[in-house]
Amino acid sequence: MRRVGHKGADHIVPGNTLESFQAALDAGVDMIEFDVLSERPDGTGRLLLAHDYADLRARTAITLGDALEYLSGPRYAGIELDVDVKLPGYGAAVVGALRENHALGRSLVSSMYPTDLDVMRSEEPTLRVGWSVPRVKRDYANSALTAVPALAALAAFRRLLPARAAAALRSGRVDAIMAHWRLVTDRLARAVVDAGGELYVWTVDDPALVRRFADLGVAGIISNDPRLLAGVR
Question: What is the pTM of this model?
């Protein structure tokens, strides 16, 4: 099981930064996840490490190229990368940056937009791609105003996901499923393994949930505090 630091180690040091990557490394991760956004909403401009445009406006973001150059250092040898492409429209440029920095072989590129994964796979047939579900901007189940409809929608999607995930994996369209922890069930875990894929769970910041998903045998657990994953296999 891969221990994956979300945005590096966002609960230790603010994420999508070099300092957060170092904190994740110190916590013993096997993989570092980070977000990539285009400078402008139309998909043009520089590729920057940010979760959304509010995040981008709030601070000075580093470029994808600078991040990949830093992560190519000897301290990060053997550390895999989960490159989360937040929006469609610039996936081909992300693949180009990974190729330029010799990072294709160590990267899993994830997105909530399967058609954009298709674009990236067409740019590089050997690229590992992961379908991130569900397609949301934030966890609506954590809000008192939206919790009831959000949980109902998640329950419906949870029933449908194992079959959809298996179909996407068996067709070769994707290699991995990146699922929000509320969607992960025994049935989904079995369906993904039977279809020859990998299941990653995001974002898990509770020790009891870490143990639960580790016992399911998932391929990776993504946490804002990777110290919770220390010693878990």
Answer: 0.93
Question: Contacts for 133-139 with beta carbons within 8 Å, 24 or more apart?
Answer: 133/157, 133/161, 133/165, 133/177, 133/178, 133/179, 133/180, 133/183, 134/180, 134/183, 136/112, 136/180, 137/52, 139/180
Distances from the Cα of 140 to the Cα of 74, 137, 146, 180, angstroms: 40, 9, 6, 12
Alpha carbon separation from 116 to 81, 84, 128, 200, 214 (Å, rounded): 18, 12, 13, 19, 30
Angle CA 116–55–58, to nearest 5:
150
Per-residue pLDDT tens digits for 17-59: 999 999 999 999 999 999 999 999 999 999 999 999 999 999 9
Residue type, 194: D
Go through the domains of the chain in sequence order and give each one's CATH number. Answer: 2-229 (3.20.20.190)
Phi, psi (rounded to 5 degrees) for 25:
-60, -45
Structure tokens at 41: 């909403």
- Main-chain phi, psi angles of 195, to 5 degrees: -85, 0
Ramachandran angles phi, psi of 103, nearest 5°: -110, 5
Q: Which is nearest to 155 in space by CA: 186, 131, 183?
A: 183
Half-sphere exposure of residue 126, counting CA atoms within 13 Å on the CB side?
A: 7
What distances in angstroms separate CA 165 from CA 2, 118, 126, 192, 204, one per listed residue? 20, 15, 20, 7, 20
For residues 154 and 185, the model is more confident at: 185
End-to-end CA distance of the chain: 5
